[in-house]
Amino acid sequence: MKKLYRNMRLFTAVDNGRALAGAEQGKISELKNASMLVSNGVVERVGAEDEVTKGICGRDISFEKDFGGACVIPGFVDPHTHICFAKRREDEFGMRLAGLPYLEILARGGGILSSVNAVKETDEEELFRRSERTVLAALSKGTTTIEIKSGYGLDTEAELKMLRVIERISKETPLTVAPTFMGAHAVPPEYKSDPDKFVDEILIKEMLPKVKAQGIARFCDVFCEEGVFSVEQSRRLLKAAAAMGFKLKIHADEVNDLGGAGLAAELHTTSAEHLLAASEEHLKAMGEAGTIAVLLPATAYSLKKPYANGRNIVDWNVPVAIATDCNPGSCFCESMPFVFGLAVMKMNMTVDEALTASTLNAAYAIGLADKVGSLQPGKQADFLVLDGETPVALAYHAGSTSVMEVYKLGEKVA
Ligand SMILES: N=CN[C@@H](CCC(=O)O)C(=O)O
Ligand SMILES: [Zn+2]
Description:
Elements: E1 2-13, E2 28-39, E3 42-48, H1 49-53, E4 61-74, E5 76-78, H2 90-97, H3 102-107, H4 112-121, H5 124-140, E6 143-149, H6 156-172, E7 176-184, H7 195-214, E8 219-224, H8 231-243, E9 247-252, H9 260-267, E10 271-274, H10 280-289, E11 292-295, H11 297-303, H12 310-315, E12 320-322, H13 336-345, H14 351-358, H15 360-365, E13 383-386, H16 393-396, E14 403-408, E15 411-412
Parallel strand pairs: 1-4, 5-6, 6-7, 7-8, 8-9, 9-10, 10-11, 11-12
Antiparallel strand pairs: 1-2, 2-3, 4-13, 13-14, 14-15
The structure holds N-(iminomethyl)-L-glutamic acid (NIG) and zinc ion (ZN).
Binding site for 4-imidazolone-5-propanoate: 89, 152, 185, 254, 330
Domain Amidohydrolase-related: 72-407
Enzyme class: hydrolase
């Protein structure tokens, strides 16, 4: 049986087989009085009502809804989160407000390492319950597909525990989930004097094969940053991961311009994230390599750092996606509408560019563009009804999500 959604003002990026870059990123299709025919949760037809219903017998339609001309966009795809965590770190936020730098907190054994201790102390059921709560908060704000990283385990057992919880989130919530293995999130204190040993003997020889064997991660990611993993260590890990069939991501040039964006271009990683301090040369190389820049403006907000230069990065022909980076430390934010507003107001992207960044390009950044990211035949019927005439509302109505209704696979879920 089919569902028919009618009378929508529908805005979507158009998928032509690759992430959109440069001027293409700002091209959005707008259809007034649009209808959408959904079959088994998948868009069968979308367009003018007479075309959409041509040859369809009324008896085949089990459900029909008129949206009264409301603005509809694809469900948000959040392509970068650490949303599987055991405890919030409000105390650390207070320390940062008092002037202590983020990397200094980590160097003193706090930050990511305090989240590692919390995950180890929390049993799997409880970790699932707490993570699920934050994931459902994201869903209520319009996120219908989400990437979730491990990386608060740092030993094989705890990393696998996180990845099992992430798999459960995928099975037991309405969201589509892209799981990422990020055992290279920080150097555990016991390897502080020999981080190469952690990279070569633990990450490469022990963890990657076990994660691969269990088939519970699609991507491998690394935090390439001063005092965390060097460019050379990141290169070794990512090359080993690629050889085992993982797709690649890299946290690059978040605080210091270490050359992570250049490494992303060299290895043709699917995406490079953060990029606040990345050089023009390396960003342009990413554009040539087709590596997607995943920008995280809520992290710049939360760390009180200058925003990544989204305007230039789009103009340099790098496909841009945006994400929340939801995590308990550097950025406790599960709201894609907030990130959308920051992209427009603080990174000088246009509303249309931000819409592509938060839907289609985000889907490409997690390898799921064949299923989600735009409202076109063959893709999941994941969509949002907005309070506003156009997607401008997402930036205009500051502090509101503007998301009235959330549909996943053609079903209202929030
Ligand atoms: N920068 C590294 N990792 C995360 C933060 C994780 C944390 O602070 O817990 C990020 O992408 O911002
Ligand atoms: Zn991150």
